[in-house]
Every structure is written in structure tokens, then in C-alpha cells.
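Late entry, nicotinamide-adenine-dinucleotide complex.
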Amino acid sequence: MEQLSVRSYNHTYPILIGKGIRYKLSKFLKGKDYSQLVIITDENVYKHYLNDITDDLNRDFIIKVFTVSPGEQAKSLKVYEEIQKYLLAENIDRSSAVIALGGGVIGDLAGFVASTYMRGISFIQVPTTLLAHDSSIGGKVAINLNSTKNVLGNFYSPDLVLYDTETFLTLSEKELRSGFAEMVKHGYLTKNGLLNRLKLEMNESINPMAKEFDRLLLESIKVKQKIVELDEFESNERKFLNLGHTLGHAIEAIKSYSHGECVMYGLLFCLYVSGVKKGQPQKFLDEDLLNWVFSLKYPLNLITKEDLDLLVNKMANDKKTINQTINFVLLENIGNPYMSSLKPEEIKQYLLDFMEMMN
Ligand SMILES: NC(=O)c1ccc[n+]([C@@H]2O[C@H](COP(=O)([O-])OP(=O)(O)OC[C@H]3O[C@@H](n4cnc5c(N)ncnc54)[C@H](O)[C@@H]3O)[C@@H](O)[C@H]2O)c1
Ligand SMILES: O=C(O)C(=O)C[C@@H](O)[C@H](O)[C@H](O)COP(=O)(O)O
Ligand SMILES: [Zn+2]
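Prediction complete; structure with ligand written out below:
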């Protein structure tokens, strides 16, 4: 088992990463005097993993379970309200804890519930997707409003992240691809060679059971950990973790691709613009990169010309937009990101040129 820790403003929490550790959650909660534990999960994860964690927990704690339908729609005010009413009806008190058992949707939703119920109760992350190597760390919790991503949220760090990577065995190829996009994003945010190792080791397919994968995942988690420790509340460096998300979130809001698929497309766009700004359109987005992304089967035609106005409207609601100026994370070099403001007309023109290149 690997162990890292993250320093948050009011406490430091461990991230435990290993295979089969979901069976031992109770051991890692030893000494915690929670009145009740409420597991929030979705129907898919319930089927695969609920018993694995409750068999053990039941011996030491009173457990309640709230299950939501799988998918992004669960990050809604409606589901949020249903859960809050459930907590109240079940007499969940301030000494209770919420366990998020699932992917990023469950982590974001359950974390936001925990951060607001009775002004905040304890929260434990038990992530089950590859994408959650990103979402379970750093304390961003949120739900969507209409289709706009993560508008209602908080920074609220968990007491513990228990990451059983054996759960990747039941993930679909699409979900692996989604999570891997955030690993590639982390690769662009560090100078430590992660990106090249990702390209080398995962050159034809994303294989989480490959010998090298655990190390790559750990490196990716460390990139995130370092940035959130540096700037937990996103005043400066943390903005860089949004690489690919200005466009990615806008696409996610209007199309039905996964978060990671949209982030990958948004990332490729930012690589293209970064190159153009340096007078070398292919500096970052070269033939090799495109072939790699293509071979990993990322969808590369997510949007059409007809989507541009709507996309720019959505970007106007991005949390990085200030005084109606839309901001993107671009790259000076790999591991050297910077923020750049673009006008709507510039964005549309860049998008048209980018789309032509991708066809
Ligand atoms: N808070 C953050 O810092 C942060 C970071 C990145 C992404 N996010 C958010 O995370 C969300 C995406 O997360 P996600 O991709 O994990 O989505 P998700 O939670 O919807 O999981 C994807 C799908 O996989 C299923 N699933 C989960 N674990 C499984 C397993 N082990 N085996 C089989 N099926 C399983 C789920 O039921 C779901 O259908 C988005 O809402 C995004 O905005 C948040
Ligand atoms: O942790 C962060 O900071 C991130 O930006 C990580 C992103 O991968 C993640 O999708 C996050 O939820 C986006 O945050 P938002 O503030 O743009 O909603
Ligand atoms: Zn993301």
C-alpha cells in the first residue's frame, strides 16, 4: 500500500492507495467515534462494492446507505435535497460522517452534502474510478446548476481518501479513458517526465493492470497533491489544474460525452492555441500526439460550427471568467502553464481552425 498525505488549511489527511484495501476501511477508521456512517453511492458501485466495505464496517459502526442513479445528473439540486432530507429523517448528527463510495460524481455530490449538512460533518472518500485519482483529492466538492458545471460548491477536504485500485477491474474502457485524460493533463503540468512515460507505457491502450500503471497513477496524484497544497483555494497555481476545462466543461454542459473525454478535447485545443501563440501551431499538438490520442480511441469530433455560440455562452459562466473575460490555461512549455484571456471572437476563430485541423 502507498500512503501520501495532503495538507489542508485545517487538517492533514491521508491518501491510502492499494489493491484490496476496501475490505479494511474499518481498520483505518479505528479510534473515530462517528455516531453513524452514511454511505452515498450509485447503483453500479453499490452492485460491485457496497458489501465489500459494509461487511467490515458493520461490526464497528451504524451504517446507513443512500443510493443514487448513476451519471452526472446526480450532481443536481434535486438529488442534493433528497439526500439532505434523508440525513435529517435518519437523525444523522454532527458527529456522523458521510462516505462517498464511487467516482467523481459521487465524491463531488456527497462532499457537497457533507460540507453543508449542519454546517459541515465529516467526510470520507472511497473512490472507485480512475478519474477519481483527481476528484477525490484537493477538496473541491460541487453540484451543477441547470447544465452549468460545479456552480454550487465548496472547498471541503475529507478526513481520509481510501483508494482501492482493484476497483478499476470493473471499469469500462470509456471510463478508463475518461480518467486517463486527467492523468495526461497532470503530465502537462509537471516537468518530471510524467507525460513521456504515459506515452511510452500506455502507447496503445490504457491498461490499469500493467506493472507500470501504479507508478504512473501515483505520479499523477502527486502532481495534484503538490498543487493543492500550494494553493488550496485556487487564488493562483491551482487554476492550472483547470487545463482543458474552460472548453471541456462547456462541451460537457451541452453534449453527452464523459468529463474526461471533454477534458481531453479541451486540452488538445489549449495545446493548439499555446502553439499558435508561440508562432508554432504544432509545437505541442503534433502528429505523434494526435496519433496517440487517436489510438486510445478518444472521440475527436465532439463539436460542430453550429455549437460555437452556445459554447462561448457556456464559457461565460466558467468560474475563471471575470468581468466577462474568458480565461484559458495555456502552456509556455510542458510544466510551465500560464493564464490567458481570450475574446469570444478569438475563441471562435481558434476553434474553427482547430476543428479543421482535427478533421
Ligand atoms: N472535485 C474535483 O476535483 C474533480 C476533478 C475531476 C472531475 N470531477 C468531477 O467528477 C465527475 C466525473 O467523475 P467519474 O468519471 O468518476 O464519473 P462517475 O462517478 O459518474 O463514474 C462513471 C461511471 O462509472 C461507474 N462506476 C464507478 N466506479 C465503478 C467501478 N469501479 N466499476 C464499474 N463502474 C463504476 C459509475 O456508476 C458511473 O456510471 C464529473 O462530475 C467531474 O466534474 C471533479
Ligand atoms: O482540482 C482542481 O482544481 C481542478 O480543477 C480539477 C479538475 O479536474 C476538476 O474537473 C474540477 O472539478 C474543476 O473545477 P471547477 O472549479 O472548474 O469546477
Ligand atoms: Zn476535471
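The CA atoms of residues 132 and 310 lie 29 Å apart. Will revisit in the morning.
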